Fold each of these.
Amino acid sequence: MKNLKITLGLFALAVSLTACTDEKKLQAEKDVAQYANYVDSISNIEMQKAANEWDAIQKDYERLKMNAENSLTGVEDDKSLKESIDNTSVRYEEYKVKVVTEKEKVDAENAKMSMRKTLLGDGYNGQDMNFDWVNKDNILSVYENFVTTVEKNKDSYSREDWDEIKLMYEALDTRKNTVEKEGLTSEDNRKIAGLKIKFAPMYTVNRIGAKSEENEEAKQ
């Protein structure tokens, strides 16, 4: 009778261990599948949208990958699950290269737009390169804001920033030629001329300096 009880106890333990093992494997399969499905789903997101939401995508990816890898602990015969995780990771890394490249473009464009708005003020909408919003009544304030902003930030601008500044400045000058014919006062025109005299050497000196720094960094 005693031996029977021991046998039944061992059998129950074996069944319990088997059930536990099966449960772990089922959970692992679920977590690995969830990881793979996530990577498949984000690959269908439009590239620019993915770039804008990249931090959240990366965070969710890391969480799901960790869950999948941790779920294999204690699972026997996990070779196929490991291969699935590895294959999913490879697909993600290939996708990541594309999105990060797009994100760099988006970040650069956002930085450019931010600088333009800082230089030109609230009137600039990011679309009108003809500067039709600049008129005889506000052109002086636009020049003042432009030159003051450049002077304030001149030490932090890169060579690319200075090239963008020149592009915006020339567009503003082109608009001034039109505004002069639309009633720009002599007083405002005189003040703008003074700002232009102030800007020219500031641009030349700092653009050369930024280029020199860029060349030095390239040599290192």
Amino acid sequence: AGPPRWAILRYDGTGAHRQQWGTWERDEDLALAAAALGSPGEPGHPPVVLVCAHGRHDTCCALRGRPAARTLAERWPDLVWECTHVGGDRFAANVLVAPDGVYYGGLDAASAVTVVGQHLADRVHAAHLRGYTDLFPAQQAAVAAVLARFGPAGRHAYTVTGTSRAGQHWLIRLTGPAPGATAYDVEVTAHRAPPHQLTCNGPATSAAMVHEVTAIRVG
């Protein structure tokens, strides 16, 4: 298997994501990883598929994450890693594709293979999409709603070009996909869902914040 590896994965809004990899056998070797934080890294690497399997944080992540990770690793052995907490235990099994910065959730072994396969072909589907790491929740909801209505698209097909807020109501403007660069105005409302047990290890019920798209206008 060789020595342990480290990686610095950099998200680039242009899509030219960069990575830098190395190995380590002693603690001192990790100084190279620290030095790499100041380096732009190399383009052209395939993304890394991280599957949360952190059962000590929440049982759901192990019970649902490990079967998904195992099936994905059989299909893409060089890309898939089990990892610790990535947030959103209630969405287990969770996958984070890095450095693309795309979260998927609610996966099982079969759907994980479909979703990741489509992602690697640069087709992001709304189904199982949790969001993009460079957007905040209302913007994530807007992108997911446009993908759901108009079909899958590449990771960088849509760009947020405007955001306004009045209380718990948002107006998000998206443009794309090229070459038409059509504009979409998406209305989003935030509210609390009814309390329920969110995770396997949740000690009590809790009310999650939900961002609901109420309208999409094309123009």
